[in-house]
Amino acid sequence: MSDFNNTLPEFDRQGASVVPRPEIKFMRRRTMFCFAVLTALGGAIIGTSEQTADLKWIALLFACIGFIAVDWLRVFSLPPVLAYAAMAVIAVYGVGNFMGDDKMKAVAELLVSAQAILMLQKKSLRLFEQLMIFVLLNCVVAAVFNDAFNYALFFLPLSLIGGCGLAYLAADMTADHVIDHDHRTPKESITSLRQRPDARFARMDTRIATRRIAMTGIKLPLMTTLLLFPAVILISVWFFFALPRRVAASRGSGGSSARVGFNDSLQMGDWGKMLQNTQRALRVKLLDPETQTPYPSDGEIYLRGRTLEVYQCDATREIATASWTKPVVSDINLTVPVPPRYVPRRSSDQQFFDRVNVEVTCEGMRSASLFATAPYYWIPGSEKLRHCVGRWTVERDVDTAIMLRRYPRTTYRFGTHAFFRGLQTRWTAFEPLDDPFSARASRRERSPAENDLSTSGAQPATIDELSAIDLDYLDQTLDYSFADMPSAAEIAEEQIQKIPAERQTSFRVARRLESYLVSGADYSYTLDLQPSPMPGMDAIERFLSVDRKGHCQYFASALVMMLRSRDIPARVVVGYRCDEFNDLAQQYTVRQSHAHAWVEALIPWADIPDGEVIYGQPRGGLVWYRLDPTPAGDADTGATAPRQVVDLAQDLWNDYVVDMDPERQRTALLQAPGLAPMTQSYRAWIDNVESLAVAINTGEVRGLGGGRLFSTPAAFAAIAFGFLAVVLIRLRWPAWRQRRRSAQTRTAAPRPSLEFYAETLDLMEEAGWHRQQGQTPFELVTSVAKQTGHDPKATLAASVLSPLRRLTEAFYQLRYGASPSSAESEETRAANDSVQAQLLQLRSLVTDQPESGT
Amino acid sequence: MMVGLFCMLGGALQGLNLLVALAGACLAVIVIQWRTSRWMIDSVRVVRRFPDAVFAGKTERVRYLIHNSSRVAPMWLLRVDDVLLDESGAKRLEMSTGVGMVLPQQTTKTHFDLCLLRRGRYSLGQWEVSTMAPFAISRAWRFSRLELKMIPDRMVELRPEDHQVDVYPRLLPLARHWHRNLPSQLGSVAKASRRQGIAQDEFFGLREYQRGDSPRHIHWRTTARMGYPAVRQFEQQSRLDLTLLVDAFDTEAETVGITGEAMEEAPVETAISLAASLVVGLSSGGHGQTALAVADESSYCIAGGQSHEGVRRMLTLLARSQPVASPEMIAALDAAERSSGGARDLVIISPRGHAEAIAASPELDQRLRVWNRRGRWIWINVQDRDAARWIARAQERDSDERFQQHVA
After folding, report:
1. Residue range B213-258, pLDDT digits in tens
2. Cβ-nearest to A204 among B28, B114, B135
3. Which of B24, B97, B116 minimises the CB distance to A178?
4. Distance of CA A278 to CAs A89, A594, A647, B16, Å?
5. Which residues are CB-neighbours of A164 under 8 A, at least 6 positions away?
6. Residue B134 preceded by cis peptide, ω within 30
């Protein structure tokens, strides 16, 4: 009957070694940390928008304070009553803000302040849930606000940590529930509402279970990451791409901070900030229309945005404010659909220009202007564009543009003849403002062929043939006031003197003046303008005579004025000059810092020197010539590899997440940027392999075997390789397998019931001898005895052998020999004593052995 | 979920793709949570092992075997909630334990230590296995469908009575030489002749093997036929050395009813506990045959030997006894006499004095006088100083103290 007393587990004996508290504490702190990070990230995602950029610091600050002071150190915590009161105050404040202009900002502020209050409270399960919901709301608000790539940057870690946080919370709650039923652990629960069972009725100890859960909880991240996150990502991606879209993708209302696009007026000195901004403005992809492969272009490309002709300067202020605008006459600002492709009369002309299709993706911007390389023509995808007659610039179709002050991101295409052998032409044909081809032809339907034939005849040959409107326009491009800026004329005069008089054509003059400014001998490029007050002085005059430094706007303005002082019509062109080619995506990445101003001068056909190539556009008459007077500044040296990767990621995000619409949904995955070149390289590889196979078949390859069927080196190589393979397979593999198998099958032999023998086995284990399952005690002795040869353990084995043998004998005797009833006799007691002595000896032998013995 | 729904609607209606992405993420988490937790709960198998003998005030270990029947995936953060109801159903003890992780096709044990403070008959409710893994969004749960019991090497369905648990009375530490206080010198020469062997017992029947039964009693033929071990049971026709009689007298029982604290404090509980302690003490000492009679509302007598079963039955009787204001002492004495075959030695354990009991029922005196002729009897009043000869210390909440020490 002794079972009743002895078989029952004793509380103290079992419980003493179990201390679950540290694990639980660690686990809980980790959950709290996770949610603090989550809160900070939620704030950061809200802060991706420019209007709410400050909020992220608030969120971060309170996340830190909340975690360190409230959760970790427990310095203080906001009592619920106070928290509710604070929430009420914030709600009132939020409603007040909501009446203002920026409703989304008010919502964002409200969310972040509520999160801050939550972070200051003592955490409970409910609080964690609330924090999670607020983070989700953060994401929602940010998604409505902002679709910049920053969102993706924060959203991905946020979802990862959110998942982790939830997984931790699961472990935490499970452990907590079990702790709740434990009467020994002091109550420190996050699920504080539950009552403990009546302690007068029963007591419970659940610490071991708690500890196990905690240990699993600590190991949880790996498991969850490995098993579940791929599944979650798969499902969400599937959901995202499979959800049928009924409407076109719309953009966040907030718009990004991109100052892309140019207004009809340009303030001088306005660009300093923008030129330091590396945010992306455009993506430009050049494609060969025949093969749809990337067109190999060399060097930089100029994308025209606006042409500005009228210079105004308010010199009465301390620092003169100058601006360029376009003429206000309505006829001059005519826009028509994009012209059709120019087909030259002589088909041989086609050898002197390349047809290139350009695809431009333009970020959201604040003006209707878009960017193109002149001369351009209509191809599918150009529907959204309007051609500005006489200027060769494009802008959004008024119908498609949203009649708002902000214009959304857009993608458009056009064809161009501007490239020849990878280089962009500097020439743009003069287009009369009342050209029947553009202005009138658009009003009546014509076939493209008819257009093409008629275009060449429409070119005015000289200035005398120009219409009144054109002359009026050219007048404005000649407007120059010597009184305001004498330096321009003087410098121009000075430079032109260096050209022999008989060669002073307008083309040479323009080139001379351009190279004078570009050379940087007297003028330097800077973005850092800190003008001192100088009332009454024109901005260009000041640049030319006083400051002698500035950015492209100043150089371009100065050159325009110099040209005009020599009666050469000139205008400022603003747009982008880009040389950043992304090899991964095979496209140009145009940043805000690539914004540029340059000059176009009108050159009569007669002045064009021999050797200049002007094809792909109407010939004869007058031609605009691009001049870029800006010396090279310390511009960045193009895209680095990581930046290219980031750009590509951003493209993918924009194309496949932000702009997912019904059309793209159908064609998804076939047009991924970056995928196209990959497909090509894959194709090229396949082609190579095919041609190689053909070559091998025809016996053209003379490699190792020299084209013969049998070759000695190849045979040797094959034999060596085969031998190596056999060695690897036959020798190494069984060794691994054995080790693995032994690891699987090595189970400890059951522990003997006799205490002293159990300890003996423990000691032997410590010394390095394991009793295998099925090995009898005598077999163990024999195996130890065998090692007395030259084994490293030999000395130990020899010394251990004798006590081990005695102990084994005693074990046999007690286990199988003497009956249990006589256990009390004097004889066995004496035997017991000797057993104890042997055990002591063994113990001392094993514990005193040198480390190398084991 | 609401946020996800909002995102989905907003995203789909307005074409805001970021909202759709957010909705996708929410949805994915919900779907994964739902499927994973449901799957875990469906493929988990739980077997409860309640200890065989539960004494009040003593910590027992309730074990659960949790088996993952899935072939591929592990399951984690499982929680097992169990319920223990007392006889009246008024008291309900919710028990909970959990397991961190179970690998595929593996079984993990988990347990909690339970210390019930009151004797009595309890019933086990359905266990409920649940999990909040992986994302704590919802809790998947399942009640026990089929209660299974582990018979060596196989599982059988439990009978309804197997859900009943008897919590035996608290065991008191007995005084050092409590044997000497017994009316007869046990272990005397006479004992040897009365020793019972198989041959002298009368075959009573066959029953299922239970833990503690001697392997010698296994009826092999039946075992082979039934597929589970069966043992022979014997009715022991023996004269007993000693009869214990518990006087389950409680004045408050009728008026107050049994409530937790009152029950623990009541002297009658001490008497019952002492009886249980003596039963266990006598059984473990090899002292020969003992009979136990309990006088409460009605009277019972159980004659037990040194077998597990006998002690179990005695303890069960004590566990279930209901103190009353006027216990059936005479009937109990009769029953004791009948079943013990005229045992001479009688120990009456009572929460009241001898005189008090006789005052309550005068026939008792006469009945005892009759008894006197055959053997000796003693009356232990647990409220008396006399009790100190039996109980080592005044009853203390020793387990409670250990509890407190632990917390400290």
Report:
1. 778 888 898 888 888 888 887 655 444 567 888 888 877 654 444 4
2. B114
3. B97
4. 41, 8, 12, 26
5. A34, A221, A224, A225
6. yes
B260 → closest Cβ in A200, A223, A657: A200
| CA-based nearest residue to B147, from B274, B235, B49 | B49
| Contact between residue A187 and residue A196 where contact means Cβ atoms under 8 Å apart | yes
Give the integer Cα–Cα distance in Å for A177 and B94. Answer: 11
Partners of B8 on chain A (C-beta within 8 Å) are 243
Question: Which residues on adjacent β-strands are paired with residue A322?
Answer: A313
Q: At A85, is the pLDDT very low, low, confident or very high (cuts 50, 70, 90)?
A: very high
Q: A59: which residues sit within 8 A by CB, 6+ positions away? A: A39, A40, A42, A43, A44, A46, A47, A112, A115, A116
Give the least confident one: A36-45, B13-22, B288-297: B13-22
Structure tokens at A659: 């702009």
Bridge partners (DSSP) of residue B237 are none
* Amino acid of residue A206: T
For testing contact with chain A, the best of B18, B40, B44, B283 (most A CBs within 10 A): B18
Widest Cα–Cα separation across chain A: 141
Dist CA A814 CA A808 (whole Å): 10
Looking at the DSSP assignment, which residues form a beta bridge with residue A525? A550
Q: Which of B291, B249, B299 is nearest to B270 (CA)?
A: B249
Summarised one tens digit per residue, pLDDT across range A684-708 is: 777 777 777 776 666 555 544 444 5
pLDDT cut 90: percent of chain B above it: 0
Residue A779: both structure tokens together:
């077999």
Model's pTM, two decimal places? Answer: 0.58
pLDDT digits (tens, 9 = 90+) for B70-98: 888 888 888 888 888 877 767 778 888 88
Query: CB-CB: which of B4, B19, B136 is closest to A173?
Result: B136
**Residue keyed to tokens 């059709």:** A340
Looking at the DSSP bridge assignments, the partners of residue A294 are: A287
Tell me the shortest Cα–Cα distance from A425 to chain B, in angstroms.
Answer: 40
- Amino acid A415: pLDDT: 92
Give the span between the Cα atoms of A410 and A400, in whole angstroms: 10
Count how many Cα atoms sit within 13 Å of the Cα of residue A234 in the half-sphere of its side chain.
Answer: 7
**A323 and A540 Cβ atoms separated by less than 8 Å:** no
Note whether A378 and A337 are within 8 A (CB).
Answer: yes
Closest chain A residue by Cα to residue B21 = A240
Q: Following CA atoms A371, A373, A377, A382 in sequence, which dihedral angle do they give, to the nearest 10 degrees?
A: -30
Show which of residues 16-35 on chain B sit within 8 Å of chain A, judged by CB atoms.
Answer: 16-29, 31-32
Nearest to B12 by CA among A249, A81, A819, A182: A249
Distance of CA A375 to the CA centre of its chain: 35
ipTM of the predicted assembly exceeds 0.90 = no
Q: How far apart are CA B124 and CA B144, in angstroms?
A: 12
**Nearest-neighbour CA in chain B from A36: distance (Å):** 17
H, E, C per residue of A363-415 = CCECCCECCECCCEECCCCCCCEEEECCCCEEEECCCCCCCCCCECCEEEEEE
Residue for token digits 């940590």?
A: A161
Give A426-455 as a DSSP string.
SEEE---TT-IIIIITTTS---HHHHHHHH
Say how far apart CA A109 and CA A266 lie, in whole Å: 35
The mean pLDDT of chain A is 74
Distance CA A96, CA A831 (A): 93
A415 near A385, Cβ under 8 Å?
Answer: no
Q: Which helix (H) or strand (E) holds B93?
A: strand B92-102
pLDDT single digits (tens) A393-423: 888 876 544 555 567 778 889 999 888 888 8
Using CA coordinates, name the residue in chain A closest to B403.
Answer: A184
